[in-house]
Amino acid sequence: MKEKYILEKRIEKGDFNKGGEASSKLKDLLRKLGVDSAVIRKTAIVTYELEMNIIIHSEGGWIRAAISREGIQIFAADDGPGIADLEKAFQPGYSTASDQVREMGFGAGLGLVNIKNYSDELKVDTKTGVGTKIRAIIHLV
Amino acid sequence: MKLIDIVEILGLEAIIAGNDQLEIMTACGADLMSDVLAFTQEKSLLLTGLTNPQVVRTAEMIDIKVIIFVRGKRPLVATVELAREKGIYLYLSARSMFECCGILYQNGLQPEEINGCFSPGEEE
Ligand SMILES: Nc1ncnc2c1ncn2[C@@H]1O[C@H](COP(=O)(O)OP(=O)(O)OP(=O)(O)O)[C@@H](O)[C@H]1O
Ligand SMILES: [Mg+2]
């Protein structure tokens, strides 16, 4: 299946200054397209949590988004290190964030929980030493 | 509650002053970004002890219009710049988080409903 992305953005490891730019851009795009505001809010939250996880926990990656009849699809793909214990990672409060990251307000261990709660469909593919691919879909209304 | 009333009750210093008549329905206090994002209601006010630009980004994601920095912690220059760009109003309070929240609650401001108490994205 070939996707036509409405957004495609490289996310660099540790780049907190730009953290949230991809999500912000997607939010503006969806607003211009006249998407329902509750759908936009859910999309923004999911994208932002995915984007920050790439910055904080991975070696860098990509955020991509597409719209189809199914809804808004968000793709997060990174270059590793992968998530060793996925079940643990989805537990509220579980976080491997450093003290420095926690001081900035991240590391509650709630990002994946939020992603799950706000998306209508979620698929996670992760391989230790390779990377993580997450696809989230938010239905239009 | 109107923004002007909140500014008065808490004795806030404006960093980026907002429209006095802005209606604030609910508030949340949090020092963790994911905690803020777990709130589902359309909200307008965030109280926080964080001062970095990410707090503005987080607010932007869920359409928070006003941020109050508690305990006199001034936001970084980059934070103020981003807020200006995004049209988010910033205020400073010398009071603690607990005190700010208590005063606002006592004056009738409603707490946020947390995601999980009802289905996400559901509009009131
Ligand atoms: N893209 C990723 N690559 C590698 N590990 C990840 C990735 N995303 C999440 N993780 C792991 O899963 C844990 C839980 O992620 P989650 O987003 O729920 O919490 P957090 O990022 O630690 O804190 P918060 O999102 O609340 O600020 C992380 O601490 C990290 O160990
Ligand atoms: Mg996270």
Question: Any descriptors?
Answer:
heterodimer; A: 141 residues; alpha+beta; Heat Shock Protein 90; five-stranded antiparallel sheet; 5 helices; 26% strand; B: 124 residues; alpha/beta; Udp-n-acetylmuramoylalanyl-d-glutamate--2,6- Diaminopimelate Ligase, Chain: A, domain 1; six-stranded mixed sheet; 33% helix; 18% strand; globular; disordered C terminus; binds adenosine-5'-triphosphate; binds magnesium ion
Short structural summary:
By secondary structure, chain A is α+β, with helices and mostly antiparallel strands.
Q: How much helicity do the residues of chain B have?
A: 25-40%
Average per-residue pLDDT of chain A, rounded, comes to 96
CATH architecture of chain A: 2-Layer Sandwich
Kindly report the greatest chain-chain contact and the residue count on each side. A-B, 29 and 26 residues
Please list the strands of the largest sheet of chain A in the order they lie side by side: 1-2-3-5-4
**Percent of sequence in beta strands of chain B:** 15-25%
Distance between the termini of chain A: 24 Å
Number of domains of chain A: 1
Content-based structural category of chain B: alpha/beta
Low-confidence stretches of chain A: none
Helical amount of chain A: 25-40%
CATH topology of chain B: Udp-n-acetylmuramoylalanyl-d-glutamate--2,6- Diaminopimelate Ligase, Chain: A, domain 1
Radius of gyration of chain A: 14 Å
Low-confidence parts of chain B lasting 5 or more residues at pLDDT below 50?
Answer: 116-124
Major beta sheet summary of chain B: 6 strands, mixed
CATH homologous superfamily placement of chain B: HprK N-terminal domain-like
Average pLDDT over all residues of chain B: 88
